[in-house]
TrEMBL record:
PANTHER family: ALPHA/BETA-HYDROLASES SUPERFAMILY PROTEIN, ALPHA_BETA-HYDROLASES SUPERFAMILY PROTEIN
Record flagged with keyword Coiled coil: no
Residue stretches spanning the membrane: none
UniProt source species: Pseudo-nitzschia multistriata
Lineage: Eukaryota, Sar, Stramenopiles, Ochrophyta, Bacillariophyta
Record's signal peptide: 1-28
Chain ranges of the AB hydrolase-1 domain: 83-414
Protein name: AB hydrolase-1 domain-containing protein
UniProt keyword annotations, A-Z: Signal
Gene3D superfamilies, sorted: alpha/beta hydrolase
Length: 426
């Protein structure tokens, strides 16, 4: 499905279907507090429950830059090989409920994170001092990155043709909620928490947090990334930005970002209309958001991306919807729907391949891809064409599965992830 200006207004429904300070180098680990501290801008971070009802794991917090609160969950032995799960659009770490348990049972040290702006992580106003301070797009201002990629080869829905486009990388409205910020977070979290080997602590609820007896083992191990949907863009960018931290990415459904200016046909004509609709949603879309953000509506919406209907249970609806009702969540939703720029997966895979050919980044970064053939938003032929990328070793379609294979068919996806983890161990 290729959006036009007329379909952009319905993008909120499509997007919600997927639904429905310390400086770098230091870290703080704690479990969910009973109260939250107001930031200098007046924003109060959300308070997650002490135990996630979806995973039955403690909700733990990482104090990121500028005191930003990042919620995460961890399962499995602390001395196991580290894996970091990166969720998709408008969801959170609970969406990995079936993957966390599967990896833990196999002896992996598995982490699932709420990206900044999602779930129970902080989501301050876009123009607040703390939000501006963590904006990953500052790299464009200080000269450490280019804001436009020229002549990028992008795929098509049919999978056989290649389009050459210039890709605008900077967020159109300058929002800090962007893939470069999320890449910074994934890299800081990997260094500070996964490799940090914090000593044993106890939460305010008296719950023991994981101990620090495996510090030496964790500090040198490369981290394996597993991503779903649009979380893949953040994961691939993290590998590009700091390749020595990671050994590969297992992609569970890529996302080709069809509202990107490089994806929309006739952008010179259509993008001004799209921008106007996006601005209207940001300014006046709260009523639409409120109407859609109900359990019954979300359950109905989820029937589009989820082809395995039995996976749409009350727990799924609750864990996806509840964080969307928190302060600041709707602003991030509308802001993200205005994100018609940023990196694209084919561009990123080419960068990783070129980096390896040039001898940068150490050992090869392996990428495996799986996806559901019944996914209404992901063209199968375009996914299959990713197999031509130098760093992509395997592309495996799953019959009868939709946009969220890890939640719809964990009996198929968990073994695929485990095989990938065995491959990157070599």
């Amino acid at each position: 499905m290729r959006p036009t200006a007329g379909t952009t207004a319905s993008a909120l429904v499509v997007a919600m279907a997927a639904v429905a300070g310390l400086a770098p180098g230091t870290s703080a680990l704690q479990a969910a507090p009973t109260t939250a501290t107001k930031t200098p801008s007046g924003y109060v971070p959300p308070v997650p429950p002490p135990i996630s009802p979806a995973t039955n794991l403690p909700n733990e917090l990482y104090s990121w830059k500028e005191g930003q609160q990042i919620r995460y969950q961890r399962a499995g032995p602390k001395d196991g090989r580290p894996v970091l799960l990166v969720h998709g659009l408008f969801v959170n770490s609970d969406h990995w409920r079936k993957t966390l348990s599967g990896l833990a049972e196999e002896g992996f040290n598995a982490y699932a994170i709420d990206l900044w702006g999602y779930g129970y992580s902080s989501k301050p106003p876009l123009d607040s001092p703390e939000a501006r301070a963590v904006n990953g797009e500052q790299r464009f201002e200080n000269g450490s990155g280019e804001s436009v990629k020229r002549g990028v080869a992008l795929g098509t829905a049919g999978g056989k043709r290649t389009r050459i486009r210039d890709v605008e990388l900077g967020h159109p409205i300058g929002s800090p909620y962007n893939f470069y910020t999320w890449s910074d977070l994934l890299r800081d979290f990997s260094r500070d928490v996964i490799r940090g080997g914090e000593t044993s602590q106890r939460s305010p609820f008296g719950l023991p947090l994981f101990g620090g007896g495996a510090k030496d083992q964790q500090q040198q191990q490369p981290i394996s990334l597993v991503s779903n949907s649009i979380g893949t863009i953040s994961a691939l960018q993290a590998v590009i930005d700091e390749p020595d931290l990671f050994n590969g990415v297992c992609v569970v459904t890529p996302n080709f970002r069809e509202l990107h200016s490089a994806e929309i046909p006739f952008p010179g004509v259509s993008m001004p209309v799209v921008r106007a609709i996006q601005a209207t949603l940001r300014e006046k879309g709260q009523g639409l958001f409120d109407a859609l953000a109900t359990p019954g509506t979300v359950k109905e919406i989820l029937k589009e991306p989820y082809k395995v209907r039995s996976a749409i249970d009350d727990t799924l609806v609750d864990v996806l919807l509840d964080p969307l009702l928190l302060e600041g969540a709707s602003k991030v939703v509308f802001d993200t729907l205005s994100y018609s720029a940023g990196p694209l997966p084919e561009q990123q895979l080419d960068e990783i391949g070129a980096m390896e050919e040039g001898g940068a980044g150490g050992k090869k970064k392996t990428v495996w891809v799986t996806y559901g053939r019944e996914d209404p938003w992901t063209p199968p032929a375009r996914v299959d064409a990713l197999a031509s990328k130098a760093c992509v070793e395997k592309v495996v379609p799953l019959d009868g599965i939709g946009h969220c294979p890890h939640d719809e068919a964990p009996e198929l996806v968990n073994p695929f992830i485990l095989d990938f983890l065995e491959r990157v161990r070599e």
